[in-house]
Amino acid sequence: MAEHGWQVRVLDAATPGSGGSGNAAAILYPKLVSAELTPEHIQSQAFLHTLKVLEDPRLAPHFQASGVLWLQTRKQHVDIGPDHPWWQSQVWSLKAEEASAKAGVALHHPALWLPNAGLIHPEGLLASLLAHKNIELLTHHEVTQICPHLLGWQIQVQPVHQRDPITLDAKHLVLAVAGGAQQLLATQHLPLKPVRGQITTLKRPLALKTTLCYGGYLTPGFHGQHVLGATFQPGRSDTSPCHEDQLANASALLDAVPSLTAQMGLHEHVTSWSARASVRWQTPDYLPMVGWLPWPADYEQLLSTRVPSRPVPEEIKALPKIGISLGHGSKGFSQAWLAADMLCQVLLAKPQAHYADLQERLKPDRFLLKAWKRGQLRPPTS
Question: Does 266 have pLDDT greater than 60?
Fold first, then answer.
């Protein structure tokens, strides 16, 4: 939005990267899918889009195109071949010996090589993004209430170091607050579930030259450390690191790459390794929610009074709309750029034809409309 000339105020309840975006490294790579699914696959589209964004000289220093080796273990095997649209450009197959040469460590599995994938330094990237001349960053400002008014939106904010709340006005408002959106909008129809993940950071130097993915992942040396992760624990939102998850990360790696056992120094106590736990937020269909959502309180009330078999009421078009970018799971550093572009195109009134299908699939009211068509909405009681 700042790039398009808007004056933007960013409100953060803590500091940028204090949640799931604050790991020591983020891996930029897509989940590979079959040839026929790739052109419409959001992770594939987002990956290519993000590579272009990261060519920006301000952002490029925070991305290292170290490549990613996707080990073809029994559990992680994916059939990708010459019919794939990315073959020999974004991905190709390597035998175990070839993969070992790329990695710098002995591998016992063939691998898919993604040469343009790599590592993002979240702290540096966030700092560069928020240093924009059109952005004002307010940290330790928790948004406690939002409501529409004639000129746009009123946002009630509680600064951490101030007794009394303050009220801010905005013409447009975008929520990118993961699980916090349900409470702010007082709706159950933005269904997000927490998935806890713990990473391990190792300062012992390893010979690894590229990122390995095998269900878990291990990065090469990056800003003085290797990042190993990550556990996947649906339904949990606690963020205290635990010893069992350290062992789980190490065990998954050594099952996939036993040649690293000696280099890892497993004779040392695992609790000496650093750890960080955070939460990703996912939707039931694993797709993010992106778009301009009619104000839920009025939207849900209006739908509840209408027969579900009829078209969506025309009155909904007149409701104030709030921007939504939620439910990116562990793919925020790739998908959020595409989501932001989609939101901006609507404000610019310059719809992009190639976004039409994505806008339909990712629309943030899809779960609400499904509940309405199933007759699950009830008129509000007096």
Answer: no
